[in-house]
Structure formats: structure tokens, C-alpha cells
Specification:
The chain has 308 residues and is an alpha+beta fold. The protein has helices at residues 2-22, 25-28, 62-80, 96-99, 107-119, 182-189, 197-220, and strands spanning 47-54, 84-87, 122-140, 147-162, 167-180, 225-231, 234-238, 250-254, 259-261, 267-269, 274-284, 287-292, 303-306. The protein has a 6-stranded antiparallel barrel. It has a 5-stranded mixed sheet with strand order 2-1-3-4-5. The longest helix has 24 residues, at 197-220.
Length: 308
């Protein structure tokens, strides 16, 4: 009986050992956390963002509409955005990618331009456009009330670029139509447009809508800093001025070097696994110096987020 019990115990122990060895490595060892698992702890940090309004749309009343679009959208984003530092073309340090709209017109050009903006500390680039104002004459109404009526349709668009992904994160298009009187309609068609309160109000409404969408899109993105250089155990982050970063802050570093290519040749960055934690030691202008908790393979291009 004792031999039977001993043999049974040996079999159970052997089975337990085989089962443990058969488990995948990630179940037996400590698993590194992935970037998508990092909490979105924006806290007091400000996300540096820039906006440009494309001004290459031809047609009457476009210039006046673009000015109204710019004023309204910028004000809405600043009012609705939480911990968001928004720069326009009049501000120093405005990114080159938005000074030349063509730099974002191709996937390869956009990827390179967004990487440059990333090193300047920008989280998002916003590009808005008044696509057009289209006149439309329609015969509407029933029976003897049927007559020609005149309308204006406004179309606006907004693209949101995530510099840390190196790609477009969101795209919005809004369209609205309003009725105007015949005098304003004829003047518009003849190329001598007059001020149209109804059209202005419509542009304001559409701009406010897109401004709110932009603020929400930026809010959903994690606050991130970019690793600019490594010297031994010291890590240097770039583009951190006016972000709210302080000495003593602890950040987690994740891989930011993996570049993926889409089916149409577009490139984007896929953040990887956690590499190490760092502690901010000093701030010097636009650069922060930090020290690693332990020796790790941190490289320029990796990304830092507030430690969980």
C-alpha cells in the first residue's frame, strides 16, 4: 500500500512538473507591459498642438469665410480643450509641416514632417479647410406658391495628425445649407459678394462643431514626450518646454521605433513594450534630463508617458 501511495505521489509530482514546463514563457516569466496598457494620466501636462487653415480654395467670399473659420475654430479649441497649448501661424516655433501644406499631402511626406514636429514637442497637428461655398437656385413650394429660391451650401473639413504615430488620426467633414435672398445670391454669382449674415452664422456653427471634435481628439491622445538622446544612464527628452513637466516626475519609457507600412505605402509608428522607468533630474529650456531606474536599452525615438 505504501509503495502504491508513493508511486501515485511520484506520478502526480511528475505531472505537475511537466505541466509547469509546458506553460508558455509569458505565463512563467514576468511580462512587460505594452504601450496600449499604459494609463492615460495626462494630469497637469499640456499637449502642444498647432493648427493651420489651408487658404488655397478659389472662389468668392472664401477669404472672408476662412478668416471667420480660423477665429472661431481656434477660440473653440482653446475654450474646450483641457490642458492643451494651441499655436497658430503667428506664434514662434510654428511647425514647418503646417507652413507648407503640401508636406502633408503624401503619406511619405507626412510621416517625415510629423516626425520633425514630434521632436519639437508637438502632440497633434490640425489642418482645417473651407472647402467651398456653393450657390444653388431651386424652384420650391406647392402649386401657385412655387417659385425660385436661393441657397448657399458651406463645406468645411478638419484633419487631425498624431505626431507620435506619424499618421492621420482622424478626419472630419461638415456641410450645411442655408437660404439667402436673391440679391445676395446674384451678387455672389456675379463675383461681387456682399456680407451674408446667414452664411457667416453657418460658418461659425460648423467651425464650432469641428473645434469641439478637434479638442476631443487631442484629449483622447496620451501625453507623451520623445527621447532625443541617451548618454550612459542619462536620458534626454526634447520638446518639453511649457508642457508642465517638473523635476522629480517619474515617466515610463516605451519602444517607439517600430515602423509599419500600410497597403498603400503609408507609414506609421506602432509603440511597443515598456523598457524602463526614468526620473526627471533637471530641466534646461526645451530639454529634460532624466536618469534610468536601471540599465535598459532605451534609444532615441522611444516615447515617455507618465508612470502608472
Amino acid at each position: 500500500m505504501r509503495r502504491t501511495i508513493g508511486l501515485l505521489g511520484l506520478i502526480l509530482l511528475t505531472g505537475f512538473f511537466i505541466n509547469a514546463c509546458a506553460k508558455p514563457l509569458y505565463e512563467r516569466g514576468e511580462q512587460r507591459s505594452a504601450y496600449w496598457e499604459a494609463p492615460n494620466k495626462n494630469g497637469r501636462y499640456q499637449k502642444k498642438t498647432a493648427i493651420a487653415i489651408q487658404t488655397n480654395s478659389p472662389g468668392p467670399y472664401i477669404r472672408e469665410g476662412e478668416e471667420l473659420l480660423t477665429q472661431t475654430m481656434v477660440q473653440t479649441i482653446r475654450d474646450k480643450g483641457k490642458r492643451l497649448l494651441l499655436l497658430t501661424a503667428q506664434d514662434p516655433g510654428f511647425p514647418a509641416a503646417l507652413q507648407n501644406p503640401d508636406s502633408l499631402s503624401t503619406s511619405q511626406g507626412a510621416f517625415m514632417a510629423l516626425q520633425a514636429a514630434r521632436l519639437q514637442g508637438y502632440h497633434c497637428l490640425l489642418q482645417a479647410k473651407l472647402i467651398g461655398i456653393q450657390p444653388d437656385e431651386r424652384k420650391t413650394g406647392l402649386w401657385w406658391f412655387r417659385k425660385n429660391r436661393f441657397f448657399m451650401t458651406v463645406v468645411v473639413a478638419l484633419d487631425v495628425y498624431d505626431t507620435f504615430l506619424g499618421a492621420k488620426a482622424a478626419s472630419y467633414v461638415r456641410q450645411q445649407t442655408v437660404q439667402v435672398d436673391e440679391g445676395h445670391y446674384r451678387a455672389f454669382v456675379d463675383g461681387t459678394p456682399q456680407a451674408m449674415a446667414a452664411v457667416d452664422e453657418m460658418i461659425v456653427d460648423l467651425s464650432e462643431d469641428l473645434g469641439e471634435q478637434a479638442a476631443e481628439a487631442v484629449e483622447a491622445i496620451k501625453w507623451i514626450a520623445s527621447v532625443a538622446d541617451i548618454q550612459g544612464q542619462n536620458v534626454y527628452l526634447g520638446g518639453v518646454q511649457e508642457t508642465g513637466l517638473r523635476v522629480g516626475d517619474r515617466l515610463s519609457i516605451y519602444e517607439g521605433r517600430r515602423v509599419m507600412e500600410g497597403s498603400n505605402g503609408e507609414k506609421f509608428i506602432v509603440p511597443g513594450y515598456k523598457v524602463s522607468d526614468i526620473l526627471i533630474q533637471s530641466l534646461n529650456g526645451d530639454t529634460a534630463e532624466a536618469v534610468m531606474d536601471e540599465a535598459a536599452d532605451i534609444q532615441p525615438g522611444d516615447i515617455a508617458v507618465p508612470a502608472g
